[in-house]
Amino acid sequence: MWRTDRRVSWSMVSLLLSLTGAPVLAAIIWVPPALGRDSGIRPVQPGLLVVAPEARGVVTLGAGRAVQLDETGLRVTNGSTLLFRTVRGGSPMSALLGEVEGSGGDRVEQISAVMSNLDIDRLSIKPGEVTRSGRLTSSEGSLPATIVVRLEGARRVVTAEAKGADAVVVHSARELGTRGRAPGLPDRLLRKRAWWVGGGAPPVTDAYTTELGVIVGVGPQGSHRGVDLRRMGHTDLHAWSPRETVTMTSYRRTVQE
User: Fold this and answer.
1) pTM (2 decimals)?
2) Cα dist. 200→102, 110, 118, 191, 223 in Å?
3) Residue 169 in contact with residue 177, Cβ under 8 Å?
4) pLDDT digits (tens, 9 = 90+) for 129-167
5) Euclidean distance between CA atoms 33 and 30, whole angstroms
6) Rounded to an integer, what distance in angstroms lies between the CA atom of residue 227 and that of residue 247?
């Protein structure tokens, strides 16, 4: 009798494991990235991107550098070499209302509103600089937005601004070999986590390198900044300022250079 009961008990346990195994496994896989391993950086989903026909296309900045924006996203190139790109098929940027509480490694983003649908309808070109303008919207509100790409010597600088926002998130694409640069981020491959850049609001801006041969910096200096790689295909760059700067400096000499 005892043996029969034991067989029944083990059968019930096996049945329960088979029914709950998938959700448990999913929780093991997805919960830590979703929580950010207590980074305090909140995940922000990019919205829709709409670009008016007159604001689309490729603009040459000079010296072989160019910038392209259409419904697939933003791309910065040097000849045929890709230097930087935003997520495909989504808004390159979002605006946040809220604040950062705490200090050092105990900082937490408190977000009260997110505006992530970007509608670009104007294009302005100057020597070495291109500006695209429009609005970021959501059910929570609307803010004027601009994306400026310009040459600054050997650097290419993307400035994403949302007037009236407390923070801006640039939704860049994930690149292979993303490696942190000390002292801002851990000097190792970065994946499946989110980090604050530095222990406070330090002057360091260079955050990481990629296999595209580019050093990527996040600014402005003195603001709370974070790098979030928890979502597949994304490297979301947070800056608690109405204006975020993303710099690209090539460390790999190319044929075009």
Assistant:
1) 0.83
2) 10, 17, 30, 22, 9
3) no
4) 999 999 999 999 999 999 999 999 889 999 999 999 999
5) 6
6) 14
